[in-house]
């Protein structure tokens, strides 16, 4: 029985029943091309964590790599990060964003090389464009309607995190640093799975990602009148790809994340599924793999809104936490030996810092 028949009548991102298993890998490439069956696979990562042999690990690794080849996104369940840990991060994130504007502004983001600090609503405009004038016009016309707090590795000797006073948000720093470390550890394991799935040695990436050159981003999407989000080009966050290896996304139940079907170019909801992390491949992993793994466009749009009068409605607030996983700062990103196509590499080599600093410089004002 084909995967499409097995899953007939189910919506693309419904959390149940499950339509993904290893026997279906061969049919996913064909199946995913139809909007009515396009889905993000749900992968039980506990099977990889508890595996006692390479062959056991390979089964989960193949599921992960197949998901990134075809969709660029997966849901990871039983991932090992304790629910109380990321729930606590949500609470502390909300406390931070509820601080007075003048307090948050004192922690403002200043330099793309640091990528740390508070970013107020409208300052960032994520896009695939690299043209400064075009980005400025987009920002003026349709800025991203969100605010963020950017946190990096805390021991960096050059760039320091910009923490609020302990009295303002008690335990904020400790909460975020604990989550940062847990996310790095999960990133390491998922990259080992990807290495196996790409026919590399399991620990191939270990010494290329061990510097923890990552970014923990807290996001707050304030309520907004729906008509403002329906204007041309406007979104809570515009269509974009991420920059690094992987993104680990914790999202609340509000929804709004949409993923582009790579084949039809239509955007479809990535419905929140309790207990899972949404994981997507980023640009540097796509470059490393010579586009064998997809860095897929995604955006955040208006979820269902509450009517406030006869002609207007307002969206609910939304919270999410994204952990942007990156290779080491000076890692040289070039085509992996198992990913050449007829001996051809699509991209010139680039270092992590060169690529990410350039992209950040383009998207912030």
Description:
The strands form four sheets. This protein has an eight-stranded mixed sheet. A four-stranded antiparallel sheet has the order 6-11-8-9, with no helix packed on it. Strands 12-13 form a two-stranded antiparallel sheet. The chain has helices at 3-6, 25-31, 46-49, 54-70, 83-97, 101-105, 132-141, 172-197, 206-209, 226-229, 283-288, 352-363; strands spanning 42-44, 73-77, 117-119, 147-151, 215-221, 237-240, 246-251, 257-260, 267-269, 277-281, 298-300, 306-307, 313-314, 318-325, 332-333, 350-351. It has one domain: Sandwich (Jelly Rolls). Helix content is 31%, strand content 18%. The protein has 365 residues and is α+β, with helices and mostly antiparallel strands. A hairpin with a 5-residue loop joins strand 12 and strand 13 (313-314). The model is unreliable at 1-34, 125-130 and 134-142 (pLDDT under 50). Helix 4 crosses helix 8 and helix 5 (83-97) crosses helix 8.
């Amino acid at each position: 029985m084909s995967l499409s028949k097995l899953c007939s009548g189910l919506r693309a991102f419904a959390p149940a029943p499950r339509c993904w298993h290893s026997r279906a890998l061969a049919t996913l490439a064909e199946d995913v091309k139809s909007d009515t069956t396009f889905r993000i696979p749900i992968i039980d990562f506990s099977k990889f964590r508890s595996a006692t042999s390479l062959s056991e690990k390979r089964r989960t690794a193949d599921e992960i790599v197949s998901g990134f080849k075809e969709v660029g996104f997966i849901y990871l369940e039983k991932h090992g990060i304790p629910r109380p840990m990321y729930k606590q991060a949500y609470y502390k994130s909300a406390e931070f964003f509820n601080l007075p504007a003048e307090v948050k502004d004192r922690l403002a983001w200043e330099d793309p090389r640091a990528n740390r600090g508070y970013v107020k609503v409208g300052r960032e405009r994520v896009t695939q464009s690299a043209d400064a004038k075009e980005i400025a016009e987009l920002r003026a016309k349709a800025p991203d309607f969100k605010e963020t707090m950017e946190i990096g590795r805390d021991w960096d000797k050059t760039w320091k995190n910009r923490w609020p006073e302990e009295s303002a948000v008690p335990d904020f720093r400790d909460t975020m640093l604990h989550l940062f470390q847990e996310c790095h550890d999960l990133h390491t394991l998922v990259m080992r799975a990807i290495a196996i799935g790409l026919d590399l040695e399991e620990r191939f990436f270990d010494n290329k990602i061990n510097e923890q050159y990552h970014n923990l981003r807290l996001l707050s999407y304030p309520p907004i009148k729906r008509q403002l989000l329906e204007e041309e080009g406007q979104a809570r966050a515009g269509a974009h790809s991420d920059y690094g290896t992987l993104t680990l996304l914790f999202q609340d139940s509000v929804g709004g994340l949409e993923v582009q079907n790579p084949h039809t170019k239509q955007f479809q909801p990535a419905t929140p599924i309790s207990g899972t992390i949404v994981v997507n491949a980023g640009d540097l992993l796509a470059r490393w793999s010579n586009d064998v793994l997809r860095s897929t466009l995604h955006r955040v749009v208006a979820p269902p809104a509450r009517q406030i009068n006869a002609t207007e409605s307002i969206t609910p607030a939304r919270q999410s936490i994204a952990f942007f996983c990156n290779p080491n700062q000076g890692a040289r990103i070039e085509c992996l030996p198992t990913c050449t196509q007829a001996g051809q590499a699509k991209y010139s080599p680039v270092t992590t810092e060169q690529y990410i600093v350039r992209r950040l410089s383009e998207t912030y004002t």
